[in-house]
Specification:
This protein is 30% helix and 16% strand. The longest helix has 16 residues, at 161-176. It is elongated and about 70 Å long. The protein has helices at residues 40-49, 55-66, 80-89, 161-176, 197-208, 228-237, 251-257, 266-275, 298-308, 333-345, 384-389, and strands spanning 96-102, 108-113, 119-126, 131-134, 138-139, 157-158, 184-187, 220-224, 241-245, 284-290, 313-319, 349-353. The strands form two sheets. It has a ten-stranded mixed beta sheet with strand order 1-2-3-4-7-8-9-10-11-12, with helices on one face. The structure holds iron/sulfur cluster. Residues 141, 143-145, 148, 150-151, 190-192, 225, 245 line the site of iron/sulfur cluster.
Length: 394
C-alpha cells in the first residue's frame, strides 16, 4: 500500500515543546493544526491567540475527548462561524486505519496510517474487568531485542504527541460505539517510549486529563527496556506505573535478550529502579518472557528472586509468542508453573500473563504488521545489533 512506502522526511518531533515551559510564550502551531498535539492549557492559549474566549478551549476539548466527536460538525454547541473557522485549519481528529484484525480471543489490532509513509500498530485487549489499549510510541524500534518481532523492524521515526494520543482516542471512540469500555492504557506497543520521552510525556498528560480521556495514573503503565539515563526524568515528570523488560538477571544473557543491557547493565538498571518514585503500595512490574533453554531454569528463578530483593516488585511471566523466523521456542507450561512457584514462594506477586491476540500477530512481542502488509515490516536486524555491540557500558 502506497501509504507505507518510504517518502517524506519525518516532521519535527516536538513542534510545541516551547510552550510547555511557563517562561516560554505560546507559539501558534502550523496549519493544518493537530488539536491532539496540544495540552488543554495550550489549546486555551491557542483560542486566546485567535481572539476567542478561554471557555472555547474547554468546549472543544470536551467534544474531542469526553464526547468523542469525530468531526468539528458534531460539536453542536459551538457557533457555526466558529466551527467553519476550525474546520478550515485543523487536521482530521482521528487517524485512518489501514487494516484491522480481530483475534479469536477478542483482541483487536489496527495498523494506523501516520500520513507520511509511516504506519504504526495499536492493540485493544478486552477482558472481564477492563479494556486495555496497548499504544505504540515509535514506528518500528531501534533496539533489536531478538525475541521481539518489532525488533526486526527499522526505526522509521518517533511518533508525535498527537499520534500517541490519537491511538487511545481512536480505540476509545471505536469501543464506545459498541458500548465497550476502555479503562487502561499501556505504553507497550512498538518502540521504546523513553527514546521518545518528550512526546510520550505530553501525550500521557493529555490522556490523563480528568476532563477528557481521564485515564487515571493507576490505569496507565509506561514500559521501558531499561533506558536508565531517561528513567529519572520519566519518574520525575510522569506519575504512572512502570514496567521494565527484564528477561534475565545475568548480564551475559540479558546482553543478548535486551541489547541495551550492553549500555546500561543490570547493576545500573537496579539503581534506577530503586530511585523510581513510588506511591504508597506501588510496585515496579518486571516483564520476564520465558524462552526454552535460555532463561527458564529454577536456578534462573532463584536468581531473579535474589536480584529483586529490596525493590517493591511484581513479576509478569510471559509465555513466548513465536513468529516466523523467531530464534526461540516457548518454555513448556509445566516449567512456567514451576518457575512461578519459586518466585511466588519468595513472597513476590507473580502472574502468568496469558498470550492474547497471537493468532493475528497482536500479542506481546509480535507487533510487526501482518503477512501481506508492506516491506516496511521486514527489514533485516543484523547491523543494528552490531552497532549496539559497540556501545560503551555504563
Ligand atoms: S521489546 Fe520493546 S524495545 Fe525491544 S525491540 Fe521490542 S519494541 Fe523494541
Amino acid at each position: 500500500m502506497s501509504v507505507l512506502t518510504p517518502t517524506a522526511p519525518a516532521p519535527p518531533l516536538e513542534p510545541h515543546d516551547a510552550s510547555e515551559s511557563p517562561a516560554s510564550p505560546f507559539v501558534m502551531p502550523p496549519v493544518p493544526l493537530r488539536l491532539s498535539d496540544m495540552t488543554r492549557d495550550e489549546l486555551t492559549q491557542c483560542m486566546l491567540a485567535w481572539g476567542e474566549k478561554p471557555y472555547r478551549a474547554q468546549q472543544v476539548w470536551s467534544w474531542m475527548y469526553a464526547k468523542l466527536a469525530g468531526t468539528v460538525e458534531e460539536m453542536t454547541d459551538l457557533s457555526k462561524p466558529f466551527r467553519a473557522r476550525l474546520a478550515e485549519v485543523i487536521a482530521p481528529l482521528r487517524p485512518t486505519a489501514i487494516s484491522h484484525r480481530v483475534s479469536a480471543d477478542g483482541t483487536e489490532k489496527w495498523l494506523l496510517d501516520c500520513g507520511d509513509g509511516v504506519a504504526t500498530e495499536t492493540v485493544f485487549i478486552p477482558d472481564e474487568e477492563r479494556g486495555t489499549v496497548c499504544v505504540s510510541s515509535q514506528a518500528g524500534c531501534s533496539l533489536s531485542c531478538p525475541f521481539c518481532r518489532t525488533g526486526t523492524l527499522p526505526l522509521r521515526r518517533n511518533l508525535t504527541t498527537a499520534e500517541i494520543v490519537e491511538q487511545v482516542l481512536f480505540v476509545r471512540a471505536t469501543m464506545a460505539a459498541r458500548g465497550v469500555r476502555v479503562t487502561n492504557v499501556v505504553l507497550m506497543g512498538m518502540g521504546e517510549p523513553l527514546y521518545n520521552l518528550e512526546a510520550v510525556t505530553r501525550a500521557v498528560r493529555i490522556i490523563m486529563d480528568n476532563t477528557g480521556l481521564a485515564i487515571g495514573c493507576r490505569k496507565l503503565t509506561l514500559s521501558t527496556s531499561g533506558v536508565v539515563n531517561k528513567m529519572e526524568e520519566a519518574g520525575r515528570n510522569l506519575n504512572v506505573n512502570l514496567a521494565i523488560s527484564l528477561h534475565s538477571v545475568r548480564d551475559p544473557v540479558r546482553d543478548q535478550l535486551v541489547p541495551i543491557n550492553r549500555k546500561f547493565n543490570l547493576a545500573a538498571l537496579r539503581r534506577a529502579a530503586l530511585a523510581w518514585p513510588m506511591r504508597g503500595r506501588d510496585r515496579i512490574t518486571w516483564e520476564y518472557v520465558l524462552l526454552a533453554g535460555v532463561n527458564d531454569t529454577l536456578q534462573d528463578a532463584r536468581e531473579l528472586v535474589s536480584w529483586l530483593k529490596g525493590i517493591p516488585s511484581k513479576v509478569n511471566l510471559l509465555a513466548f509468542n513465536p513468529w516466523p523466523g523467531a530464534p526461540y521456542t516457548p518454555t513448556p507450561r509445566e516449567q512456567i508453573l514451576r518457575f512461578q512457584e519459586v518466585v511466588a514462594n519468595a513472597g513476590l506477586v507473580t502472574i502468568i500473563r496469558d498470550s492474547r491476540g497471537a493468532d493475528v500477530g497482536a500479542a506481546c512481542g509480535q507487533l510487526a504488521g501482518t503477512a501481506g502488509e508492506p516491506e516496511l515490516f521486514h527489514a533485516p536486524m543484523q547491523g543494528r545489533l552490531d552497532s549496539l555491540e559497540k556501545l560503551p557500558r555504563i
